[in-house]
Amino acid sequence: MDNTPRYSTVNFVKETGETYTPAGLADFVAERLIACKLNSQKKVLKILEPAVGDGVLLLSLLRRLKGYPADLDIVAYDTNPESIEKAKKNISKSFPKVQVSFRHEDFLLQYDESSRHTDPFERQEDKEKFDLIIANPPYVRTQILGAEKAREIALKFNLKGRIDLFQPFLIAMTDALREGGSMGAIVSNRFLTTRAGTSIRSYLNDHLRLDELWDLGDTKLFEAAVLPALIFASKSDPGVAKAKFTSIYESEEGVSEVTCDIFSALKNSEISRFESSNGKRYAITRGVLGQINGSSNEPWAISTVQNTEWLASINAKTECTFGDISKIRVGVKSTADKVFLKKDWDDLADGKPELLHPLITRKNATRFGLNAEFSESVTREILYPYDMSSSVRKVVELDDYPNMKAYLLSHKEALSSRKYLIEAGRKWYEIWVPHAPSGWKERKIVFPDISEKPMFWVDDSGSIVSGECYWLVLNEGENPDLFFLILAIANSRFIEKFYDISFPNKLYSGKRRFITQYVKNFPVPFESTYSRKVVELVKELLDTVDLHKRSDLEQKLDILVNRCFGV
């Protein structure tokens, strides 16, 4: 067995995903795991911790199993020998008589797809199976794992798209569960709503009965910038129809009902708003797991009676979605910003390179129209080595642009180190995500990927959009008035409510993520008197300079958008 650590060292939390579980969270996970399902008829209870860390989760579980009428058979994995020693010390101090089989091994190697299918006649029941699994698996994103390692793991566990290391852990943990067994895991809440989480959502839906989901949102329980979620599931009766779903996020709206700690509030079903000891206010939403169009390919969201009825009324007034009538793209990604994006192009000793173009960033963001001081506010230009008249990506020849050639050659070593670009058959001086050059001159709606409030604006300048923003253009042949209608909908208070119900994926401080997989689902109403009035009003607003009048027009638009959808 190869025991070489693959993702766990003490010193590099970001690279390894090793973040120890806070004691309060560990207690909460242990309580919910036992509450969800515990077979009291077992004479021997087999327990697994696949990434034991300092042992705090096992300790919390053992405290709640004290007096349980069965022998405990416990196995704990970790690739970090220092973590194992720490866990041994912590557990033996509190439970000197409890025996734990600590294994300095990679848990994933025991249960990956390749090991399961190497021998087609191998019986699944010959694998070691467990009654309870409790875990805070490593959270390591694709860019930290590296492309080659990520592809290897994705292939072994039949995952698609960008993966996080906790995803194969969930699959391996499912494989390690005995029929009727239960698991509780702390993971990143990103998988609930992002496209990268599609594969794991589908897998969990098909192989487990989800008992409870808890989106702990921006509670800042970890030092690392990870927004946690909790999964409690059983190896029986796959399906998500009745899974309880609870979320908690900061909220300044409404009156706090009580002052208490986060976990006390979560345990009390009567509390929906509270203030924590640090003065932050939180709102708790409780319901069941719902899915857009009933598909695990779409984001998972909380379904309540009120939300279900509200969405049903919206669906009845919806003719299509943004994704049906427009192309939504992320901005350019150079993967070498220090070379392609600069503020001091004029200061270069060898002269300013050719093919520089104005770049729209989130600093240009304002509602409906570009910042009034756009020309002054654009302090950055992008070097864009493509034929701007081409409808397909067409890189220019360096010999045709001597200044640009000299500049890029001075950075050739750094640019050529982007092996993924070379392997894709691209030239060493290309941008990784350039898009079709001729598309930039089209009238487009631009929006930052992260903002507290919707921030969609029109760009007629032909500028290139940076990778921290998204942009959309109407599909060819669509009614041009739809451009103004979706601009109003995207900036409305209506869409804030639609977003929060359909995609409960806020970041810290109430910030929302406006990305393709969410925006494509924004609704467009049937043509009506109200929708035509919206179009007229948006056109008027875009021609208005007076700030007070613009504010008044935006308020009127909010009312009209609501009426378009009958709310």
Care to count the β-strands?
Answer: 24
Q: How many individual domains?
A: 2
Strand content: 15-25%
| Poorly predicted spans | 1-17, 116-125, 373-377
The proportion of residues forming helix, as a percent range, comes to: 25-40%
Structural class: alpha/beta
**Total of helices:** 23
Give the end-to-end Cα distance, rounded to a whole number of Å.
62 Å
Average pLDDT level: 85
- CA-based gyration radius: 27 Å
C-alpha geometry: globular
What profile does the largest beta sheet have? 11 strands, mixed
Keywords:
567 residues; alpha/beta; Rossmann fold; 2 domains; 11-stranded mixed sheet; 5-stranded mixed sheet; 23 helices; 24 strands; globular; disordered N terminus
Walk me through the structure.
This protein is α/β, with parallel strands linked by helices and 567 residues long. The chain has two domains: 13-117 and 125-208 and 229-236, Rossmann fold; 329-564, no CATH class. It is 34% helix and 21% strand. The protein contains 23 helices and 24 strands. Strands 1, 2, 3, 4, 5, 6, 7, 8, 9, 10 and 11 form an eleven-stranded mixed beta sheet that branches. A five-stranded mixed beta sheet has the order 13-22-18-20-16. Strands 14-17-15-21 form a four-stranded mixed beta sheet. A hairpin with a 5-residue loop joins strand 9 and strand 10 (281-291). The radius of gyration is 27 Å and the shape is globular. The chain starts with 12 loop residues before the first helix and ends with a helix. The model is unreliable at 1-17, 116-125 and 373-377 (pLDDT under 50).
